[in-house]
Amino acid sequence: MKQMHFSPDEWQDYKSKTIEPELVVEMEAHLELCENCREYFLKLIDETEIKTAHDKISVDFTDTLIKKINQPAPAVIPVKIKPDRRKLNRRDLFAYYVTAAVITLALMSGGVFDSMVEKSMYLSQICMLKSQHIESTANKDWDRQLMEDSSRMIRNFSINKERNVKDAK
Predict the structure, then answer these.
(1) Cα distance between residue 149 and residue 141, in whole Å
(2) Residue ranges of domains in the chain
(3) What's the first-to-final CA gap in the chain, in angstroms?
(4) Between helices 8-15 and 35-43, what is the axis angle to 10°?
(5) Sequential DSSP letters for 65-118
(6) How much is the pLDDT for 1?
(7) What is the pLDDT of residues 15-29, one digit of tens each?
(8) d(C-alpha 35, C-alpha 42), whole Å
(9) Which of these, 21, 22, 26, 18, lies nearest to 6 by C-alpha position?
(10) How far apart are CA 47 and CA 37, in angstroms?
């Protein structure tokens, strides 16, 4: 899509309808967005075209259009569309079960399930060892340590505040 404005020749071609349909779409989209080009295009419309439009449009066009706009819309009855669900017959159902059984046997014979079980047991052992390590290294008196650290920090804050007050005097 063209990012810049169209040339005056292109607007003349658009007005005379001598351009490609793809370019028409681009130019119409550009007219919606660009006020400068819209003003330029409207200036291209001359008095004879306006007179021709007046001759084609009936005198009561505006009144008729306003009446149609103000008319209440007809009531719409909502219709629920049910999805088309195909009922499975016995042969299809049997084919699904046979397929599932074949896939399961193939995975079992390849050892996929065994390796999954081994991996999950390995991961659970790692988690157990990590939690035991964390419990052994954790401080048993963490609450007392937290209280002491908080008290020390408050004391330091109070001392610094007193020093700042003395220095300010």
Answers:
(1) 12
(2) 8-61, 94-168
(3) 73
(4) 60
(5) HHHHHHSPPPP----PPPP--PPPPHHHHHHHHHHHHHHHHHHHHTTHHHHHHH
(6) 44
(7) 888 999 888 888 888
(8) 10
(9) 26
(10) 20
